[in-house]
Write a structure and sequence with these properties.
alpha/beta; 219 residues; binds NADP nicotinamide-adenine-dinucleotide phosphate; 10 strands; globular; eight-stranded mixed beta sheet; two-stranded antiparallel sheet
């Protein structure tokens, strides 16, 4: 399958590299085609790896991944161009964290709205699925980095898009029983508002290799 991965940071690199390892073809997008980090990645990741502008990557992908800075995601997706997102599954892994006024970063949207919903409103014909944003990128693509059973969440308004993302997550190594569909895209509020707690846990443990393990009553 062809993927457009928007983002040249560690998340874009990690997801794009995983997708290549699974036999997919990937174009990594950035603000400027020829971006140094994207070009270096494409040069070493093999013949299925390409780089380009946000629009080039989105146009290339049958599925598009938003792995851009949360404060810039709406701009990045606007640069990707609405026509290149129409009808496509858009996996949003971004978090609306703003550290411009110091640490810890603040959420730029919360409570009654979320970045995932803002993206869906700006691009109503994209099939937005929020997923993977609640963990470190190493864990996203290799859940065995954390021992035992632990969870990945997804949400979105399009059932078939969520089914596609669920299937993709299983190829990343997530057991079916560890993938929890939280419902429509408004669940992105909670998924994003977990980040302040994630950051404090990260600070306390000194590692990003942890995740949420859900414990519930016997059914
Ligand atoms: N780090 C993690 O493990 C982790 C885990 C879960 C979720 N996340 C989320 O995943 C996303 C990516 O994180 P990251 O650390 O890999 O990268 P990042 O540094 O947050 O974002 C890098 C990307 O954002 C783009 N960008 C920055 N400013 C922009 C602007 N003004 N306009 C358009 N695009 C802009 C950059 O474009 P250029 O390529 O042109 O520079 C680059 O592609 C973030 O939303 C983050 O919160 C991260």
């Amino acid at each position: 399958m062809r993927f457009g991965v928007l983002g040249t940071g560690m998340v874009g690199h990690t997801i794009a590299t995983k997708l290549i390892s699974l036999g997919h073809e990937v174009t990594m997008g950035s603000r400027r085609a020829g971006n140094d980090k994207a070009a270096a990645w494409a040069a070493q990741a093999g013949e299925s790896a390409h780089e380009g502008s946000f629009a080039g990557a989105a146009s290339f992908g049958e599925v598009v991944v938003n792995a851009t800075a949360g404060t810039a995601s709406l701009d990045a997706l606007a640069a990707a161009e609405e026509k290149n997102l129409t009808g496509k599954v858009l996996i949003d892994v971004a978090n609306p964290l703003d550290s411009s006024t110091g640490m810890p970063p603040r959420l730029t949207v919360a409570n009654t709205d979320s970045l995932g919903e803002r993206i869906q409103r700006q691009f109503p014909d994209a099939r937005v699925v929020k997923a993977l944003n609640t963990m470190n990128c190493e864990v996203m693509v290799d859940p065995s980095r954390v021992p035992g059973s632990h969870s990945v969440f997804l949400c979105g308004n399009d059932q078939s898009a969520k089914a596609d993302v669920r299937a993709l997550l299983e190829t990343f190594g997530w057991p079916a029983g560890s993938i929890l569909d939280l419902g429509d895209l408004s669940a992105a509020r909670g998924m994003e508002m977990y980040l302040p707690l994630w950051l404090r846990i990260f600070g306390a443990l000194g590692t990003g290799r942890f995740n949420i393990a859900l414990v519930r009553d016997a059914q």
